[in-house]
Each structure stands twice: as structure tokens, then as C-alpha cells.
Design brief:
Length: 93
């Protein structure tokens, strides 16, 4: 699934409820999911890591929707490699 489609699905599925919850609460949920991902990376199975990566990406999409950010456009800054040095691989010090 591409990022634009993900944002559409997240908006259709959770958009109204997430906007009612608000940006601060969405950031808190995202932070919690990042913590769960960290735990899965350290001690989890591959399936648990996949699950937590999906949750983190879904919460990022929800937050982007609330902030009117097009994730596909936002990640374009990495399309040619490092956005700072333009290298691929990065040659930043």
C-alpha cells in the first residue's frame, strides 16, 4: 500500500474519532506505539515487530491527516538520498 492510500484508509477508518481526540492525544498514542516498537525490536518476534511497525505508521498517518500533511509529498525530501548532502549513501560527517 502506498502512503497516499494509507492516509485515505486511516482517514476513512479513524479520522473522525482521531480528530475528536485531538493532536496532543494522537502524539501521545504515537509515542506509546514507538515504545512498543522499541520493545519488539529488543525482545520480540518478527511478527511482533511487523505489528508494531504497522501501528507506528498508522499513527503517523493519523497525525499527518490531522495536521494536513501529505506524507507522500513529505517523504519526497528523501527521494534522491540524504536531504542534507544529497548523497546515497550519505556522506555527511
Amino acid at each position: 500500500m502506498d502512503l497516499a492510500r494509507l492516509q485515505e484508509v486511516i482517514e476513512r477508518t479513524y479520522g473522525e474519532r482521531d480528530r475528536a481526540r485531538g493532536v496532543p492525544s494522537t502524539v501521545a498514542w504515537l509515542a506509546e506505539e514507538v515504545g512498543e516498537l522499541a520493545q519488539a525490536v529488543r525482545k520480540g518476534t518478527h511478527a511482533q515487530r511487523e505489528h508494531e511497525f504497522a501501528d507506528v505508521v498508522a499513527w503517523v498517518a493519523s497525525l499527518a491527516n490531522q495536521m494536513d500533511v501529505d506524507l507522500a509529498a513529505a517523504v519526497e525530501r528523501y527521494a534522491d538520498g540524504c536531504p542534507r548532502c544529497a548523497g546515497s549513501p550519505c556522506t555527511c560527517p
